[in-house]
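Every protein is a chain of amino acids, and every chain bends into a shape of its own. Below is the pair of lines this work produces for a single protein:
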Amino acid sequence: MSEGPSSLYPQEVSLTNCDKEPIHILGKIQSHGYLLACDPVSYKITYCSENINRLFDKRVDELLGSQITDLFKNRISEILKTVDSSEKTNPVQLEIKGVSYLLIAHINEGNLVVELEPFENLSDPFKYQDQLSEVVTRLNSVIDEQGMCDITADLIKKFFDYDRVMIYRFDENWDGVVVSEAREEHLESWLGLRYPASDIPQQARKLFLRQGVRIIADVASEPVSIQALSGDERDNPIDLSISETRASSTIHIEYLENMNVGATLTAAIISKDNLWGLVACHHYSPKLVNYYQRQSCKFLTQVFSSQLVLSKANVLLQKVNKAAVLRSTLLEKISKDWNIHKGLTKGAATMLDITEATGAAVILDDRITTVGKGPSEEEIYELIALLKQDKEDLVFTANLCESNNCSSSLKSYASGVLCIFLSAAKKNALIWFKPEKIETVTWAGNPDKPVAVDENQRISPRKSFDKWSVEQSGKSDPWYDYEIAAAKALKENISEIILEKYEEVKELNKLLRSAYEDLETFSYSVAHDLRAPLRGIDGFAQILKEDYFEQLDDFGKSSIETIINSSFKMNQLIDDILEFSKVSQSEVQKGNFSMVDLVQETIQFLQIEKDFSNAKISVEESMPQAYGDRKMVLQLMQNLLTNALKYTQNEQNPLIEIGHTVIDQMDYFFVKDNGIGFDQKHERRIFKLFNRLVGDEYGGSGIGLTISQRIVKKHNGEIKVVSEAGKGSTFLFNLG
């Protein structure tokens, strides 16, 4: 069931749902103003405030449905006909019943909204120009953020004469802190006080961002309701998002009353299209600041915002330039010895210098090198595993332990972390650490008790704003834009060095291939020459066992068994090395042959019925003929089938399937088993020489699959594997 417009209004607004209160459609305006709204084409009045009769001596029901142009003189009526956007018209001064008003109009959500507010022009145009000149001159005279905040607070206090003017900055959690203030001498200072994010809910922040400047002229006055042409205004609410006279939420009004505030002016401080903070002005009696004054305040705040952005940009530029010089030094060190670990962490300049961090680490090639003060290697590995879960290559936080369990050591050294991964695999990374910063934070009232309960059990905003100090821990200083930019640039520089070294690596690879070929010949010779002494060792060990075994103590007996077992394993290894060398050096003699016959020959040779009686082998009889070196392919099939038998031997119903499939229009033969399988991420590793994923409970030297891969490569083919731990493996190959 869909919701009607009236459901937008909470039945009862409280502290538990005020962040959802639709404050832009509350249907009320402040008592000092008047509002009319009409259709922008027909000019028929569709909304008006209940106090409108004070101006025009007509009842609300008489005005609704009439022409708005009939209420004003021709000049003003013509101006209203030119309004065509949400941009407000230049205010029009008019006199009604001997009182001066400003008429301000705009279009919003299909309504031409016309507002009138009292106007008493006491300003001197020359004084106004002097004020604007002073704003620009004084703000241009400082370059630091705090200085700009102080000057802005002083100027607004001077120009608009509010009792208290505060510069209120939001943090990353939307809590606010008073970073500067100008006040009457008798008032208590609120400088440094923090206010929880709930004090200014997100929908209010959005309206500040859109409207720019807003006043509440009299906190204690009763707001004026709006009537609609088509029944209850709540069934068809008017959007007052950017209206000058829009009334405030009752929750906010009660909040201000609890602070004894009589009137307010609030202006948005915007930095790069984001709400940086607010200029918050309090007066302890009613105070109406006219539209032109509000626009002056808005201008002043915009100049401040521009200077703020410029100041940040200048600081960022200086830091970036400094970091660029440091990176150049680091890259020179890396290139000198081609040692990233040493280049980034040793010497006078290190990766630590491009940020404000106190510790850093390089994680590269399964090795960690640290500089400065940081966590232990074990903690760094655990931290990297945690940060890998993030989808981004760059991860940073100033509050690592807020949502993660941290040891006291990690919290102390690395409450703040900036990590940048050097590759998509996220195995290698650069990481910086900032320590926990323990500080005392003073709140305006207890932030854990933002509400009060009266004797009737009614919930209302807190009544106490007494300073409430708490010790804040677990957070570090924030990561600044220039630090993040420097980390990104360092990663890019390292990538560029790797690309520069690519050609050198290619040449080295050619030399390596030549050396590898020589090594194969050497390994064949060594393996062959090892046979004789190995037989001697095994023979003499067997003699000792037969003739003297009972005379030996337990250690002697164990040593004899170890020698015999080691000899046996080494003999197997020599056989495998010889086989590998033989395959590498053999020339391929290709021809057509039956793959079905080759598989049956392999099954008979391996004596599967005798040694693996429990295994069931399914052979696809319709496999096509193969073209290749039959002798080599026979060895390939023996290796793959032996592998499958070995890793299914502990299964209750071992099943091995041998067959044929087509992938991307290529013929592939496969050997599939339901054995122990493995994690697919190891698919490349299993083909490497002497590389095994299992322990000694399964025999083998780790050469069989390497030989299989070598045979397939000699045929210009491809071999691959699809596997899942506990569910078996499928090896697929083609012969080019």
Observations:
- The first strand starts at residue 28 and ends at 29.
- Residues 1-18 have pLDDT under 50 and may be disordered.
- The CA atoms of residues 238 and 556 lie 99 Å apart.
